[in-house]
Write a structure and sequence with these properties.
The chain has 199 residues and is of the alpha+beta class. It contains three helices and twelve strands, in the order ββββββββαββαββα. The strands form three sheets. A seven-stranded antiparallel sheet has the order 2-1-5-6-7-4-3, with no helix packed on it. The radius of gyration is 19 Å and the shape is elongated.
Length: 199
């Protein structure tokens, strides 16, 4: 049975495997689904594609589905036109949304899981609804793990959320960040073992 891939952009169909109508054709579709990073996606559109003029850099939300299951979610970061007006579209995965929010200088004590939840809540307060996350599964640290005294979050004046997660949580306590969308909710998990817990 052939695998069916679809790519909607802002909820409207941009590409479908086997489409014969140019309005739903994309060329050179290249997903990069690295489970340890945000992932990326690129494709080429001809002017006949129905969504050719609808793409908004840093705004448009792009998803890719394999047989109905979402395997990528992210946003358009760059577009390039060639001499034939074919448009190459580059997308980055939704973990990159964490670059859009800032964490102010402060010292944090208490439980590690609470810091993680506070970082995500702080992020959500600064971004549009389609860039927000719901805290999901946490297996990297136990609920009662305290923030180490030597690892208190004495931040620089301003950090983006992605950097503070990486440097003050992942680098100290281990684990991996994973995003997943179920229904209309995008969860952000902090997992001890990505391979074991990959859905």
């Amino acid at each position: 049975v052939p695998v069916m891939y679809t790519i909607p952009i802002d909820g409207k169909l941009l590409y479908q495997t086997g489409a014969e109508n140019e309005a739903q054709i994309a060329l050179n579709v290249k997903p990069s689904l690295d489970i340890e990073s945000a992932g990326s996606l690129s494709f080429v559109l001809t002017p006949g594609n129905a969504q050719y003029d609808a793409i908004r850099k840093m705004k448009s939300i792009v998803t890719m589905h394999q047989d109905g299951k979402m395997i990528f979610r992210g946003r358009v970061t760059e577009t390039e036109k060639d001499i034939f007006n074919q448009k190459t579209v580059y997308c980055e995965g939704d973990q990159s949304f964490l670059l859009d929010s800032l964490w102010e200088e402060q010292t944090v004590l208490g439980k590690v899981q609470d810091l993680y939840r506070n970082l995500i809540a702080n992020h959500n307060a600064q971004v549009e609804s389609d860039k927000q996350f719901t805290v999901g599964i946490i297996t990297a640290v136990d609920a009662d793990t305290p923030i180490e005294g030597s690892q208190r979050v004495e931040t620089r004046r301003m950090w983006d959320t992605a950097s503070i997660l990486d440097e003050r949580l992942l680098s100290v306590y281990g684990g991996y960040i994973r995003t997943r969308t179920e229904g209309n909710v995008t969860y952000i998990d902090w997992l001890k073992d990505l391979i074991k817990e990959k859905k």
